[in-house]
Q: What sequence folds into this?
């Protein structure tokens, strides 16, 4: 009897090891890319107010990345980086399209590119060549005009993608949205986009793999949600708290429910064992809508609240569940990861790294991550930044001011360590300048017509 138990235990151990070896099959891919969702918005990242059980399941049954970053602090550059595997600075797509116009700026912003060129090879174009059905649902925001919309960037189908950065008429029908058939009055956009995804999955020919770009307009403004959900969260707020926004929480709950519906559809169709799920976001939480605490500031800012985002990966039976990975990641990695999992070889100079070796071999790249935002955005001034290990340096263009933080000890970026760690600051600043030159980053220039207030 003891021998049988021993052999059974060994057999289970071997099966467990086999289950999480690098998969060789060509999977379906679903990329959930959420608008304006910071890491601190989710239960699995510590939020105790917003209810996100379905998204949390992806973390529980898959992998959660604790140091995931967006390529930019605003949306369009991150979306371009996601589709091409290139830094926004290399693409010269460095602000949301069409960006802010600041009155009387001290610096003039560069002549940046306000569309994703068709000459850039996208994830969808790579996978289409591999025989994938390629679908885009939701926000696109990568250029004005059909020539820059998803169907001209490798997608067979585009539902709701255009130059719109948010639902201009609101989240309830009538939407009056390009590339989206009008819904019945009062229909909620987040429900509608999930319905479209479910129909595609249910009716798809199982003999052909699919790539679904599911880029929800939630949780961008206008912050609108179903009345009954708002009331539920209002009853849970006993004292004023910026991190407890009932309407925002209700909006997130609807998003979570619909991700759950899509996952249920995959389960019913027996597709979970052959589908790689990635959940990510384009930038941090919008200040004023919710709080990013303990992170500093939020969307549009150079600090962690502007670029720290959730990143979850799930593949039933292929990716080990319940893991937390501390390896710093950035948006471009997602393209390289998808290509790696689908056995697709990238071409040209790309900036991301596949996370497949991180998942299966505990790979640590020991690389710097960079951000470049030569623009004004609300209260933030043009800047570049670099993170290497636990250290992060920010360089502001207006006055050449340098800030240095140790993120391991000070995640809230409260203590500027330039004075006490000048050699580290000098090392990172040189690295940042070298990188800017290598990607031909555009920088702002002095404004000859600038009028200093108070003179």
A:
């Amino acid at each position: 009897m003891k021998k049988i138990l021993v052999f059974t235990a060994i057999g289970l151990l071997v099966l467990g090891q086999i289950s999480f070896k690098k998969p060789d099959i060509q999977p379906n891919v679903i990329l959930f890319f959420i608008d304006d969702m910071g890491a601190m918005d989710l239960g699995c990242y510590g939020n105790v107010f917003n209810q996100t059980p379905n998204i949390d399941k992806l973390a529980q049954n898959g992998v959660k990345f604790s140091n995931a970053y967006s390529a930019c602090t605003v949306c369009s550059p991150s979306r371009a980086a996601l589709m091409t595997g290139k830094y926004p600075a290399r693409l010269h797509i460095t602000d949301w399209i069409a960006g802010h116009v600041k009155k009387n700026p001290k610096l003039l912003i560069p002549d940046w590119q306000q569309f994703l060129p068709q000459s850039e090879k996208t994830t969808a174009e790579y996978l289409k060549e591999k025989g994938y059905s390629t679908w885009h649902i939701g926000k696109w925001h990568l250029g004005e005009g059909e020539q820059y919309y998803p169907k001209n960037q490798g997608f067979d189908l585009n539902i709701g993608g255009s130059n719109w950065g948010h639902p201009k008429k609101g989240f309830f029908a009538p939407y009056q949205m390009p590339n989206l058939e009008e819904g019945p009055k009062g229909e909620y956009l987040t429900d509608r986009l999930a319905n479209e995804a479910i129909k595609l999955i249910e009716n798809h020919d199982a003999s052909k793999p699919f790539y679904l770009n599911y880029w929800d307009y939630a949780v961008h403004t206008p912050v609108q949600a179903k009345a009954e959900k708002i009331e539920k969260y209002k009853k849970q707020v006993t004292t004023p708290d910026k991190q407890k926004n009932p309407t925002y929480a209700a909006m997130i709950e609807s998003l979570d429910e619909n991700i759950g519906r899509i996952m249920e559809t995959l389960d019913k169709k027996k597709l979970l064992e052959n589908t790689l799920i990635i959940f990510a976001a384009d930038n941090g939480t919008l200040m004023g809508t919710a709080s990013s605490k303990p992170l500093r500031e939020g969307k549009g800012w150079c600090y962690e609240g502007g670029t720290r985002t959730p990143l979850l990966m799930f593949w039933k039976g292929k990716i080990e569940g319940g893991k937390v990975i501390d390896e710093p990641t950035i948006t471009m990695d997602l393209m390289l990861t998808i290509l790696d999992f689908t056995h697709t070889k990238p071409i040209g100079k790309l900036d991301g790294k596949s996370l497949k070796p991180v998942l299966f071999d505990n790979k640590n790249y020991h690389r710097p991550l960079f951000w470049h935002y030569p623009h004004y955005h609300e209260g933030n001034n043009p800047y570049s930044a670099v993170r290497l290990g636990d250290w992060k340096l920010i360089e502001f263009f207006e006055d050449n001011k340098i800030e240095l933080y140790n993120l391991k000890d000070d995640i809230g970026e409260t203590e500027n360590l330039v004075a006490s760690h000048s050699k580290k600051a000098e090392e990172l600043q040189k690295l940042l300048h070298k990188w800017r030159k290598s990607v031909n980053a555009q920088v702002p220039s002095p404004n000859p017509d600038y009028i200093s207030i108070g003179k």
Residues 84 and 303 are 25 Å apart (CA to CA). The longest strand covers residues 28-34. Confidence is low (pLDDT under 50) at residues 1-19. The first helix runs from residue 2 to 19.
